[in-house]
Amino acid sequence: QVGQIFLYFQWDSLLLEAGFLAVLVAPLHLLKWRSTAWRPHDSVTFWLVRWLLFRLMFASGVVKLTSRCPTWWGLTALTYHYETQCIPTPAAWFAHQLPVWFQKFSVVATYIIEIAIPLLFFAPIRRLRLFAFYSQVLLQVLIILTGNYNFFNVLTIVLAFSLLDEEHVGRWLGRSKRRHASTWPPSLRSFLSTLLELSTYALLLYWSVQSFGLEINWEKRLLDSKVAFTYHEFKMWLQAVTLPLVGLGFLSLSWEILSALYRCACVRGCFWKLWATLQWAIFTTATVGMFAISLVPFTYIDRESNDKLWPGIHQMFSAVERFQVVNSYGLFRRMTGVGGRPEVVLEGSYDKQSWT
Length: 356
Description:
Blueprint: H1 10-25, H2 42-66, H3 70-73, H4 78-84, H5 90-96, H6 100-116, H7 126-146, H8 152-160, H9 166-172, H10 188-212, E1 215-217, E2 222-224, H11 231-265, H12 270-298, H13 303-307, H14 311-320
Transmembrane segments: 14-31, 43-63, 105-125, 137-164, 237-258, 278-301
Keywords: Endoplasmic reticulum, Membrane, Transmembrane, Transmembrane helix
Protein name: Lipase maturation factor
């Protein structure tokens, strides 16, 4: 905040919030003689990282449409972005040369990754969360290749690791302990899980085609796309889903809290069971408090939903707002440089007649 407008971008606020969450996520080293690599409550505090990632991505997708920016609504934003952004990379030139239909489809893909796929962050099916992880990483890597935004995209990828589990990371490191043996016929649970996963992908594809009018033009050999809904329809949809999304987050957090409490009960030894439960109570209280105050900046995307929050939550948020432990997000709200990229020109003269 010392830098005022020069160091007051959303990624600076994101760094403050992620840094504060790191305090809660870091292992608690109070009893040195006991291993502190993992605690039963770790999944509770780590859930806050996933909630931060959800708020960041979902709000960033929503504000592109609520801002009424004609380039985002016309799906032409990326025809300007690569050459008018602050610091393009060499690859940005090649991205700018891509055909217009592909640029428009890229905008559609951005909407899907930022608005629809974040809902899968809280999916009970592991493969859906992995799909969401790789989708977010793909978007961030493409942004890194075509533009220089310092630590922002790398930090977002770090936040996306909250979607992974130990088993998947173990595969990367060659330490996977689970042996996947193919069984036939599959169990009922496995069958229902696969059926639900395929249904989710089908629903996501159907929603994308209907919302953005995706249609293959065989004659011109391109993919047509357009926004197939109005601003009023989108605002009504946003108003209808904002509070249910809060409820979805609450249910997901409740599951993590109850699961952590069960793990505390499974700890061996009466003293260690009590010690684990005490830590669970402390960190759960902190996590619920962080979740509660984060609802205020999250519901900024819909004012009516924000007004429906319990007044006590607004008071809690006002008490800590100056510390920026929770923030509102909405990256690339409007596409800049549409009318040309503004440049600063410095001129000097020795004789006050001819200027250089």
